[in-house]
């Protein structure tokens, strides 16, 4: 869970949502010019965008309805000061003040960003951020903002993502103003931008009408370690704060844009590597840039994996084939969220806000009139769970702003990317709340309680079987948490976890069933030769004679066998004395009861029942989770040159005399109802069913857990392929199970308490 005062909000920028009005008095921005040059996807522009300047009242009401309590937004520098300096457009001041008042009317705390790339074209004509006077321009603008809004707004952010607007706008030319300046010029520009930040902080504090809190919001992809090893962690940290990018992409750097602000100096590695490109950097500059701040903002969307190679040098790991991507093609890497936050807080030790995070999806209004965006919900759940983990591990994160509330004008991509949790039809301006907005509302209302990190993920537990080579053939333990064979989850949220670990650490997955250990064991027995003649004790006897172990009640389903197959089930002695005499004389043929069986037979084996599986049979066995077996006879076989151990005395103690009537413990199941849960046996230890699925079949899992084994055919379970030989566990409260295909399954569960 998050701290009680954690701030949950959404974020946007002025240019991306506001639109224009011929009467608004605003000036031209570099993005207006960029659009006029045809540099936006599909030839689009932001003249309308989301028409927020005319619809902000309904937009803030919509935020209130969705439970939003904080809003990070920007004001448009060129709208407020059309020439960038000098004259102030009072219409803009009135507009933004009314916006802030409307936010507060709807219970929304404003977080105002001074600069989210709305650079005045009039100042660009004077050289833009490369002009040494740009810090003065920005300071003057910050003064106007402080004088105009600080009585209504407590939180201010100076700059948004300098890595982007410096690098993409002026080095690679992908963003406005679309320039490709020299590397030397870009280092000068970056220095000017950071000085502008410092001047803005001074102006904000000087002219604010009350005490305010000020932050700064850089960005970058986050390096994260391949493993939790100290070597990999150090390698990832080295890359994150190091200088591994090629020169033409040097601005994608964390340390260069954050060390001066929060630590008061440029990173030594960068100073040495880029010394031929650097401008004059004075002590006065560094003092200015490192003005005290109240918090650190950080925009994080994704990252990349790093490991430690030879001599601890970082290795950039390839992404997995078919890795998850957003609609924008960005990798989905919640690991980067956790490690990035952790690394940043450890280095800069400032209270943090995640000022942007979200994803673009291929969102459409469906036939039911709604926008279903499960991918975004999954993304946000993973990232917010990673954020909580970072907080739990010590990072002081004060809030989270989801990017973004409304689908908007996504810079050079125009209207081709949808990041919003509210769908916007850009022709009609109709807003449609997406499923993710309702999901996020619950997250905000519960302070993160509804995140998967705080809930049991009730996924199907597909298990890797344990293979055992035996003297007589093979065993495959398909569902087991026994110390002699503990199955591992092979995929999904719990991948790599042992079944015993889940049983102990996450009892809710199993209905909080009151048992020390997972109570059942399901195995497939492939008998190449006859198994020993054996018997199992009950709980009382095993508890007294086997160090408190459970006894062993089991049942068999004959998966396959020869036409003349048989099993040993019970014996022919009428009294204990007769039994002891037969055993003493080795009269096994006279003593043992051999019963013919066929495929599909089901047999219950109670404790005390003499039994043996004969060679040529394949049996699916469901049993108590116990490995206590007493050997009565083993045909004189040896193992490692020695006869296998027999347990005559204990066998004599526990054998039931006389044996049960076989008719009560055996039935054939080949003609049971299809698409039905056919009960084969139900006792105090387990209930076992056979399911024969013909096309479609839906059941409800209402037990503490349910084991399933596919014994024939293949099909789908809740859309996932299953086939003969698969074993899995359905956790408690799993709900409806949809089966599709043609297959047979054996299911088992403990009795409801």
Describe this protein's structure.
This protein has 753 residues and is α+β, with helices and mostly antiparallel strands. It is 28% helix and 26% strand. It contains 21 helices and 37 strands. It has an eight-stranded parallel sheet with strand order 5-4-3-2-1-11-10-7. Strands 14, 19, 32, 33, 34, 35, 36 and 37 form an eight-stranded antiparallel sheet that branches. Helix 15 (374-392) links the parallel strand 10 (352-356) and strand 11. Helix 8 runs antiparallel to helix 9, helix 9 (183-207) crosses helix 13 and helix 15 packs parallel to helix 16. The longest helix has 25 residues, at 183-207. Its EC number is 3.2.1.21.
Mean pLDDT metric: 96
What's the total count of β strands? 37
Shape: elongated
Describe the sheet with the most strands.
8 strands, parallel
Helix content: 25-40%
Low-confidence stretches: none
In whole angstroms, the N-to-C terminal distance is: 32 Å
Question: How does the SSE layout of this entry go?
Answer:
Elements: E1 7-11, H1 14-17, H2 30-36, H3 52-65, E2 70-74, H4 77-80, H5 90-105, E3 109-115, H6 121-124, H7 134-149, E4 155-160, H8 162-170, H9 183-207, E5 213-217, E6 222-225, H10 230-240, H11 255-262, H12 268-273, H13 283-289, E7 296-299, E8 303-308, E9 314-316, H14 334-348, E10 352-356, H15 374-392, E11 397-403, E12 422-424, E13 431-433, H16 435-445, E14 461-464, E15 466-469, E16 473-479, E17 481-482, E18 485-486, E19 488-489, H17 499-505, E20 520-527, E21 533-535, H18 539-545, E22 554-560, E23 566-571, H19 576-585, H20 588-591, E24 592-596, E25 601-605, E26 611-613, E27 618-624, E28 630-633, E29 638-639, E30 642-643, H21 648-654, E31 666-668, E32 677-682, E33 687-701, E34 705-717, E35 720-723, E36 727-731, E37 735-749
């Amino acid at each position: 869970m998050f701290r009680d005062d954690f701030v949950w909000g959404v974020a946007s920028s002025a240019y991306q949502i506001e639109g224009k009005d011929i009467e608004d008095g605003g000036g031209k921005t570099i993005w207006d010019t960029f659009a006029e040059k045809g540099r936006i996807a599909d030839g689009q522009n932001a003249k309308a965008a989301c028409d927020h300047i005319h619809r902000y009242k309904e937009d803030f009401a919509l935020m209130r309805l969705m439970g939003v309590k904080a809003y990070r937004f920007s004001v448009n520098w060129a709208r407020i000061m059309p020439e960038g300096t000098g004259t102030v457009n009072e219409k803009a001041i009135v507009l933004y003040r009314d916006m802030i008042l409307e936010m507060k009317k709807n219970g929304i705390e404003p977080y105002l960003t001074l600069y989210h790339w709305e650079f005045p074209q009039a100042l660009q004509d004077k050289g833009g951020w490369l002009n040494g006077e740009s810090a003065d321009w920005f300071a003057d603008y910050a003064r106007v903002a402080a004088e105009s809004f600080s009585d209504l707004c407590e939180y201010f952010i100076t700059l948004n993502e300098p890595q982007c607007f410096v690098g993409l706008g002026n080095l690679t030319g992908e963003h406005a103003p679309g320039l490709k300046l020299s590397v030397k010029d870009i280092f000068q520009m970056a220095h000017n931008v950071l000085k502008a930040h410092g001047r803005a902080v001074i102006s904000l504090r000087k002219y604010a009408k009350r005490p305010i809190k000020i932050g700064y919001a850089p960005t970058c992809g986050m390096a994260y370690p391949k493993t939790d090893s100290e070597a990999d962690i150090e390698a990832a940290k080295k890359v994150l704060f190091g200088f591994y990018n090629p020169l033409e992409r040097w601005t994608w750097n964390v340390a260069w844009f954050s060390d001066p602000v929060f630590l008061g100096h440029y990173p030594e590695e960068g100073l040495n590597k880029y010394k031929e490109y650097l401008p004059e950097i004075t002590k006065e500059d560094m003092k200015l840039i490192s003005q005290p701040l109240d918090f650190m903002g950080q925009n994080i969307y994704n990252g990349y994996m790093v490991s430690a190679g030879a001599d601890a040098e970082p290795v950039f790991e390839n992404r997995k084939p078919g890795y998850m991507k957003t609609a924008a093609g960005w990798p989905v890497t919640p690991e980067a969220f956790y490690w990035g936050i952790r690394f940043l807080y450890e280095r800069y030790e400032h209270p943090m806000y995640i000022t942007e995070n979200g994803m673009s999806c291929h969102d459409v209004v469906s036939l039911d009139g709604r926008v279903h965006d499960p991918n975004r919900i999954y993304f946000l759940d993973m990232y917010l769970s990673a954020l909580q983990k970072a907080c739990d591990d010590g990072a002081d994160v004060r809030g989270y702003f989801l990017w973004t509330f409304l689908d908007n004008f996504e810079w050079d991509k125009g209207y081709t990317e949808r990041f919003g949790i509210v769908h916007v039809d850009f022709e009609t301006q109709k807003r449609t709340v997406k499923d993710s907005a309702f999901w996020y509302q619950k997250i905000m209302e519960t302070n993160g309680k509804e995140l998967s990190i705080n809930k049991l993920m009730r996924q199907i537990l597909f298990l890797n079987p344990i293979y055992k080579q035996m003297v007589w053939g093979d065993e495959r333990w398909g569902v087991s948490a026994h110390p002699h064979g503990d199955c591992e989850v092979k995929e999904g949220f719990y991948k790599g976890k042992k079944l015993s670990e889940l049983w102990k650490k996450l009892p809710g997955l199993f209905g909080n069933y009151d048992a020390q250990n997972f109570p059942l064991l399901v195995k497939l027995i492939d008998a190449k030769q006859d198994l020993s003649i054996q018997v199992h004790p009950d709980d009382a006897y095993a508890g007294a004679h086997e160090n408190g172990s459970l006894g062993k009640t089991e049942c068999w389903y004959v998966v396959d066998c020869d036409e003349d197959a048989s099993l040993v089930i019970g014996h022919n002695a009428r009294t204990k004395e007769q039994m002891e005499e037969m055993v003493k004389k080795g009269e096994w043929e006279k003593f043992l009861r051999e019963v013919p069986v066929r495929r599909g037979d089901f047999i219950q084996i109670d404790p005390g029942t003499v039994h043996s599986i004969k060679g040529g049979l394949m049996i699916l066995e469901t049993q108590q989770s116990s490995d206590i077996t007493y050997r009565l006879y083993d045909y004189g076989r040896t193992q490692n040159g020695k006869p296998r151990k027999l347990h005559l005395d204990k066998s004599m103690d526990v054998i039931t005399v006389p044996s049960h009537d076989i008719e009560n413990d055996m039935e054939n199941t080949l003609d049971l109802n299809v698409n039905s849960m056919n009960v084969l046996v139900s006792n105090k230890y387990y209930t076992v069913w056979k399911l024969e699925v013909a096309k479609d079949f839906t059941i409800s899992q209402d037990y503490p857990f349910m084991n399933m084994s596919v014994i024939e055919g293949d099909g789908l379970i809740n859309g996932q392929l299953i086939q003969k030989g698969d074993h899995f566990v359905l956790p408690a409260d799993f709900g409806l199970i949809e089966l599709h295909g043609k297959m047979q399954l054996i299911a088992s569960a403990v009795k409801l308490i």
